[in-house]
Structure prediction request, 242 residues.
Amino acid sequence: MAEQMLDAKGLNCPLPILKAKKMLSGMQPGDVLVIEATDPGSVADFAAFCSQTGNELLESGQDGDVFKFKIKKV
Amino acid sequence: MAEETVADIKKKSLSIIVTKGSLDWAYPPFILATTAAALDYDVTLFFTFYGLALLKKDLNPKFTVLGNAAMEMPMFGTHIAMPNFMAMIPGVDAIAGAMMKKMIKDKGVASLSDLREAAVLSDVRMIACQMTLDLFEYKKEDLIDEIELGGAATYFDIAANSNINLFI
Prediction:
């Protein structure tokens, strides 16, 4: 189970989603993508992304101005 | 069809008729198309009338403050509306367009050419309206290579099988 990191800080909608999708495409099922973003809209958007694609949102949190997500590829 | 898998049957689809080619109106179709593709939708964009300009190899959409009553530019710590008469002053539209592009860059919003490239890379089908091409005397060579040509019947063939159909 590999873990990869995506720094989406400073990017606005829909770039964090597009970049996350691109990275997940190159990963194996069970792998985990950790994303850091500063777009407040990304909280709702990554939940919706996972609900639409079936990938598992393991974690959605905030540390200061940075939103952190963990997505497990199905 | 027997060979269809569950994933195929469940795959959602989106079509958008793109009718406008100015800088501000160009964003919604490309944002929605690339996002839907990232959500595993099959996506088709049908470009007609002024929307066709968004398929030009040389992508350089213009901007106007004319007839844009809700537009307020953040300036000097407040929001400044642009009255219609401003558009009559030579250079105002160009300056407003340049300001918009700077805001887009400063706020980490994708450029239109990046979004269009993302659409191409994520297999968004882009169909140029043949009639508009003829009407405005565009040649297929003026447009990016990844497009198809089609007409209203082509659109309905796609729309009738799409979950979501939008007109922008």
Q: What stands out?
A: The longest strand of chain A covers residues 56-63. The beta strands of chain A are 3-8, 32-37, 56-63, 66-72. The helical segments of chain A are 15-25, 42-53.
